[in-house]
TrEMBL record:
Protein name per the record: Aminotransferase, class IV
One GO BP: carboxylic acid biosynthetic process
InterPro entries: Aminotrans_IV, Aminotransferase-like, BCAT-like_C, Class-IV_PLP-Dep_Aminotrnsfr
The UniProt record lists the keyword Transcription regulation: no
Keyword Transferase tagged: yes
Organism: mine drainage metagenome
Gene Ontology terms, MF aspect: transaminase activity
Assigned protein family: Belongs to the class-IV pyridoxal-phosphate-dependent aminotransferase family.
SUPFAM superfamilies, per database record: D-aminoacid aminotransferase-like PLP-dependent enzymes
Keywords recorded for this protein, A-Z: Aminotransferase, Transferase
Length: 102
């Protein structure tokens, strides 16, 4: 299950987040948009953040505590790999997201 702060939080409701949610839904993963308690960060199997500059970036350590044994987790890797395939134009299903610049 992917848990993300909801629209009522202070996160940016940007294109990358919207795209990520669409990708995750397409993978058949469950998404919960809700308040995330700080304690949950330390018990999560994996963490990542997303954004225009960050793209999909794993969070491997928080306050000196390793997340996912300090390695990129399989779910984060799958989402990140799919994201990069899409932005590189290698996923026909998502071609409509791209604009060719000459």
């Amino acid at each position: 299950k992917i848990i993300t702060p909801g629209e009522d939080s202070s996160i940016l409701l940007g294109i990358t987040r919207m795209s990520l949610l669409e990708i995750v839904k397409g993978m058949g993963m469950e998404i919960a948009e809700r308040f995330v308690h700080r304690e949950e960060i330390f018990t999560a199997d994996e963490l990542f953040f997303c954004g225009t500059a960050a793209e999909i970036t794993p969070i491997l350590n928080v306050d000196g505590i390793d997340i996912s044994n300090g390695k990129v987790g399989p779910i984060t890797a799958k989402i990140r790999d799919s994201f990069f395939q899409i932005v590189q134009g290698n996923e026909p299903k998502f071609k409509k997201w791209l604009t060719l610049v000459k």
